[in-house]
């Protein structure tokens, strides 16, 4: 049998040693008029067939260093997720209240062969998303302004690239989702963190934005989330209207992360039980959403953005180069997300989140923690540790000890708030009622 040619490895006996450094002025030295640039200073070897091999570089060669823009913190939640997997593989019974991942929506039995779609998604899916806004919010959306993306993460990257230039200032509430901060920083945008607390329900206000402008200069944009990660707090219609007006007056882009819409726990008679979409108030605002949370399609990596008309062409140009098209099989599956049956199934899942949330709220006295954010929506409980900080130096140490001593995984607040997050933790009750009940029992026992 004839083996195909290459790739070849040179046997040790045939490898040639690196050439000795030439003597000054001797054969192989630089001739008249030649210059010893950086490439000449890098030694080379032969690949065994007489051709120069790739230059050998040293560890301190700047050419081997990562970019400055990549020097952002890793997402702690995903690191902890890996640690949980390792411990479970080793036989540990770990209860995870870590990742914000609801129960997965089943895939259809057979997916059709799929090729590229348009860079902004298929026409039928863009029309279905527009219909979703008509059904839930009573607002008309032009399907031509809907951009389907590779998860909401893909939407944020493309929106930030289309809307902001390096050096622009963009405000974010803190505590908040760390990927906003890190994506913006990697793109060279100046992040202005706005500390929030119980007095504003952990949401930004026009007064806080005015203070940020006085301290840092004009803002090119603001990113809001309602319900928010990690706090679960929401902006009511009056609060959202005030932020829309502030952005109009200050000529700042408003970007609204609405990925947790539909996962809400309203009081009876509340006028906006699923949340208020900023698209109801302002067609110039940008909305970002996803199939990951309410529909439980995290691994399918499919999201969308509602764009102002002026950003559609720039966004499409970026999308066609960065991703070519969103994943076609995920778009096929997502078409079935907007049926009455699908809504009913997912609303039943949300009722399960509500029961898990109630368990945490009922256990607050036994937890003996500190001030907690109102968990209006999403599936997160964000709380200061209060008296527990007398035993542990910070939330990182607490979370590590809890995982080691009780096999319960929670997320330290430093992921969401680099300043005050060392005093807080986030629990995700997306794991469901049974997992939350078991975790609470273990936490309370651990703290005794």
What does this structure look like?
It is globular, with a radius of gyration of 27 Å. The chain contains eleven helices and twelve strands. The N terminus is likely disordered. With 448 residues, it is α/β, with parallel strands linked by helices. The longest helix has 28 residues. The strands form three sheets. Strands 2-8-7-6-5-3-4 form a seven-stranded mixed β-sheet, sandwiched between helices. A three-stranded antiparallel β-sheet has the order 9-12-11. A two-stranded parallel ribbon has the order 1-10.
List the helices and strands and how they pair.
Layout: H1 76-89, E1 95-96, H2 123-137, E2 146-149, H3 151-163, E3 169-174, H4 178-186, E4 190-195, H5 206-216, E5 221-225, H6 237-250, E6 253-257, E7 286-290, E8 303-306, H7 309-322, H8 328-334, H9 340-367, E9 380-384, H10 395-406, E10 408-409, E11 411-412, E12 424-428, H11 433-447
Parallel strand pairs: 1-10, 3-4, 3-5, 5-6, 6-7
Antiparallel strand pairs: 2-8, 7-8, 9-12, 11-12
Helix pairs in contact: 3-4, 3-7, 9-11
InterPro entries: Aminotransferase_I/II_large, AspAT/PAT-like, NHTrfase_class1_PyrdxlP-BS, PyrdxlP-dep_Trfase, PyrdxlP-dep_Trfase_major
EC number: 2.6.1.-
Protein name: Aminotransferase
């Amino acid at each position: 049998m004839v083996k195909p040619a290459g790739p070849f490895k040179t046997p040790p006996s045939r490898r040639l040693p690196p050439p000795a450094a030439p003597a000054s002025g001797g054969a192989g030295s630089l001739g008249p008029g030649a210059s010893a640039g950086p490439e000449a200073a890098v030694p080379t070897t032969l690949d065994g067939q007489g051709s120069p091999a790739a230059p050998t570089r040293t560890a301190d060669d700047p050419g081997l260093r990562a970019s400055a823009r990549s020097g952002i913190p890793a997402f702690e939640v995903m690191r902890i997720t890996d640690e949980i997997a390792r411990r479970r593989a080793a036989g540990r019974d770990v209860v995870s209240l870590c990742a914000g991942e609801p129960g997965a929506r089943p895939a259809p039995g057979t997916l059709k062969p799929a090729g590229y779609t348009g860079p902004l998604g298929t026409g039928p899916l863009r029309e279905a998303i527009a219909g979703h806004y008509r059904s839930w919010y009573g607002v008309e959306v032009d399907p031509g302004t809907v951009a389907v993306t590779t998860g909401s993460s893909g939407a944020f990257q493309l929106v930030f690239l289309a809307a902001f230039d390096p050096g622009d200032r963009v405000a974010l509430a803190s505590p908040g989702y760390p990927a906003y901060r890190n994506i913006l920083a990697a793109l060279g945008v100046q992040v202005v963190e706005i500390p929030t607390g119980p007095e504003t329900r952990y949401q930004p206000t026009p007064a806080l934005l005015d203070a940020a402008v006085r301290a840092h200069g004009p803002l090119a944009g603001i990113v809001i989330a309602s319900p928010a990660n990690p706090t679960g707090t929401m902006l009511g219609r009056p609060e959202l209207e005030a932020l829309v007006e502030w952005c109009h007056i200050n000529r700042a882009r408003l970007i609204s992360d609405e990925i947790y819409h539909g996962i809400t726990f309203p009081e009876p008679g509340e006028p906006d039980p699923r949340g208020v979409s900023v698209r109801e108030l302002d067609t110039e605002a940008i909305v970002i959403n996803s199939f990951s949370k309410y529909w439980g399609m995290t691994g399918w990596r499919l999201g969308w953005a509602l764009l102002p008309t002026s950003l559609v062409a720039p966004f499409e140009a970026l999308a066609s180069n960065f991703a070519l098209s969103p994943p076609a099989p995920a778009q096929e599956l997502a078409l079935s997300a907007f049926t009455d049956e699908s809504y009913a199934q997912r609303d039943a899942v949300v009722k399960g989140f509500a029961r898990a949330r109630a368990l945490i709220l009922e256990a607050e006295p036994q937890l003996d923690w500190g001030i907690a954010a109102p968990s209006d929506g999403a599936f997160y409980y964000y709380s200061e540790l209060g008296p527990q900080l007398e035993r542990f130096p910070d939330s990182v140490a607490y979370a590590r000890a809890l995982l080691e001593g009780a096999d319960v995984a929670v997320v330290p607040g430093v992921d969401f708030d680099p300043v005050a997050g060392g005093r807080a933790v986030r629990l995700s009750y997306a794991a469901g009622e049974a997992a939350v009940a078991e975790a609470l029992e273990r936490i309370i026992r651990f703290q005794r």
